[in-house]
Amino acid sequence: MRKTLKMRNKELVIECNAASPIIHKRIWGENLMINLQKMDASNPIESIEFIQRAVYTFYVTAMRGVKEALNANKDDCIDFLSDFEMMEFADPDILDQIIEAWGINIHSESEPKNQEGPQQENQP
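User: That's the sequence. What structure does it adopt?
Assistant: Structure tokens below.
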């Protein structure tokens, strides 16, 4: 799912897809899914830093495509983050947009092939 984040006067294109957790793990060495679930309001700095890493992962995927994003590294993130203030990532609206993009991505768009449910055997 491609989405444009509105961050103050900037627009930032991100892309969330099935490869996002793999790309995130390769760049940052951390599990994207687990960290999304355990974000803690009692530690806002750590949460903001995680959001920055996640946004960078999604941004690099949108800009370079999955194959190139797999070769991204942490050093590239420094240049990316220099365009933003840390507190821009603290905006609850940004997190909501990321979760929305990720949430839309995890829903299946295919229809189940068997609509009737489990078949019962005919017994004489």
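The chain has a mean pLDDT of 80.
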